[in-house]
Amino acid sequence: VCVELRRRHTFLHKEKALLVKAQRRQRLCTLLPSSGSCYGHYVLYFYDTMFRRCRRFVYGGCGGNANRFRTLRECRRICEEADEADDMMKWRMRPAGY
């Protein structure tokens, strides 16, 4: 019984940690793209919540916000995977019979 309770506690702890991580990523990835206040021309990527995918944009080099990534791969790893994880959590937490 004790071992089973420990496994359940560990599972719930890991699931909560994943949920917190997904919530942090969701806040980051839902920011609107911002080119910043400088006049450089750096092609970066941001996560577009409307289309649920990463897209290119031009960053000026300073200011802006955290929804900017150097590579498409980084954007996808952080935001698209978080979006999929969020969908999975919603599916798993839905009431039975739905």
TrEMBL record:
Keywords: Disulfide bond, Protease inhibitor, Repeat, Secreted, Serine protease inhibitor. Its main location: secreted. This is Putative salivary kunitz domain protein. Residues 29-79 form the BPTI/Kunitz inhibitor domain. It comes from the Eukaryota. The keyword Repeat applies. GO terms for molecular function: serine-type endopeptidase inhibitor activity. PROSITE patterns: BPTI_KUNITZ_1 (PS00280), BPTI_KUNITZ_2 (PS50279). It is found in: Secreted. It comes from Rhipicephalus microplus. GO terms for cellular component: extracellular space. The keyword Oxidoreductase does not apply. InterPro entries: Kunitz_BPTI (IPR002223), Kunitz_BPTI_sf (IPR036880), Prtase_inh_Kunz-CS (IPR020901), TFPI/VKTCI-like (IPR050098).
